[in-house]
Amino acid sequence: MHTLSQVSAKTYSTFRFQQTLSELTELSSIQDLELYNPMATPIILGEGSNTIFLQNIEKPICRYIAAEKQLLSLDSNYAALHVEAGHNWHELVSWCVDNGWWGIENLALIPGSVGAAPVQNIGAYGVELADRCLYVDFFHWHSKKVQRITGARCNFTYRDSIFKQALAGKGIIVAVGILVQREGVPVLTYSGLDNLTENPNLAEIYTSVINIRQTKLPSPTKLANCGSFFKNPIISAEQYTNLQKCFPTIPGYTIDDNLIKVPTAWLLEQQGFKGFKQGDVGCYEKQPLVLVNFGDGTADQLIALISLIIETIDSHYNIRLEPEVRLLTKEGSLYGE
Ligand code: EPU
Description:
five-stranded antiparallel β-sheet, alpha+beta, Uridine Diphospho-n-acetylenolpyruvylglucosamine Reductase, domain 2, single chain
């Protein structure tokens, strides 16, 4: 275990705002966690690809950096993997593809750590972590014990889980169990993947996902960003039908008989936010759902942009957008996450 004091948040968030983190502790074993005794409930950080520091943070921050992986079982159909939270997510996907194991190839190139993946139930191109998660090992601050929570009990829904709800602030994810398949079925429902050959192999899907992401999304190493900034809102079928009367081309994906998911990117593009810049922050020119820091952006500029977007979309569509990214201030998270 080692603790750093007064570190720059620039290194710890891919949005790269210039704030100071008072105390950041990196832990690399369960023994470290048992000995860790912070002054207040710590903020948990992975690779910082979904967290923006809006102010200097005085609360303790901790990162669990153990990153081993283990093949728990392998039979003619399945491989069960146990992966520690500090492992990089994309490296895990690549390793599975190299081994010929199907199941998470559509989640290639998602930035961040394995431990962060269950928190917001990462998802892309027709697959969510929820579809492949066997269990999550969760260390409780209070009891100092690790609890194994089966995937079914993680309450996974769209960009949400028990770790953002009942277990928020109660502990830290230390490992994730993942089930992959030796004979997989390609998931090609996403419109960008349906032009692959009829029976694409694992590597073709993996490469195709990487190509789509690299074409549409800015690399955080080149242009500071945290991926999709807002969630796609889920509205009632009734509200959707009413919106269609005024906006006949509004896209919507059916969740069930009563609920429709609307792409925020479409709402933003319609309202002129694609490529919009204000101060040194803005909406990415190829995908407006991704907010970017052009280099010298400030927290005040970002808050002003978020407010402008939320108010504009609310006034035109009566839809209140919610950030998907975690926005941290001295007091806690903005927008309740
Ligand atoms: N659209 C526009 N203009 C644009 C881009 C998109 O109108 O410039 C509309 C189109 O109708 C398009 C729709 O938005 O069909 C959806 O766009 P896209 O396929 O790019 O996906 P998204 O809804 O914007 C979500 C996830 C992404 C994930 C992709 C692919 C959320 C918040 N975001 O984005 O996840 O990669 O689907 O599955 O659900 C992330 O979470 O950081 C992330 C990148």
